[in-house]
Amino acid sequence: MKPALRVTRPELHRLFEGMIAAYGPQAWWPADSPFEIAVGALLVQRTQWINAARALENLSAHRLMSARAVVESDLRDVETLISTVGFYRQKAVRLQSMATWVIQSGGFDALSGLPTAELRTSLLSVPGIGPETADSILLYAFDRPVFVADAYARRLFQRQGWAGESSSSGYDGVRKAVMSLLNEGAQFYNEFHALIVRHGKSVCKTRPACESCPVRNGCDFGRARRSTGRRRIDR
Ligand code: SF4
Asked: Which of 119, 140, 161 is the last residue of a domain?
């Protein structure tokens, strides 16, 4: 099997250290319960966090921050409360599906007793929960050491020059590649993902701000930009 990433464990650690030195601990995920984290992970799909946070506040204010309450509530009410997020009608249905799954599985305590692979498979059986959402829930709601290989991470790794065989560099390939190198605990993965998102939103954006990047040393894309800039100045 061709590698999804050409990177070493020290290189991943250098990236982590560079980001945490620049941005500090991110204290993810701000929530009062595992259920709230799972709901947030579902609502934030294709939506800005600020809008998902408003929906979470609405659900809390109307005492709908438990699986039982969500299942027993009227679908139209759920739609109204989460209408600040994109695709809110579809997400209201999915929210009720996830709440049903929690109840039918015996609640979060019972789910917490499952091995990570089994829990992930079970999460992926819930309509609307794909690999990225499942891993976010595993990591932040269940404290499992998994890597969320989201678009920010894949773009960053690709720019760093770590992209491996394109046929295996999708979500699952990158997730497995990172997890085969890092045997750290959930706290490390928690911070790593939060830092990657922070970096991807503030510096390594669609148009990256390489000149102010804390991890530009060793980044292929940043290096290429610097030498292009130098050549322009030399002319
Ligand atoms: S140097 Fe540029 S491309 Fe590389 S990680 Fe930093 S912002 Fe992203």
From this structure: 140
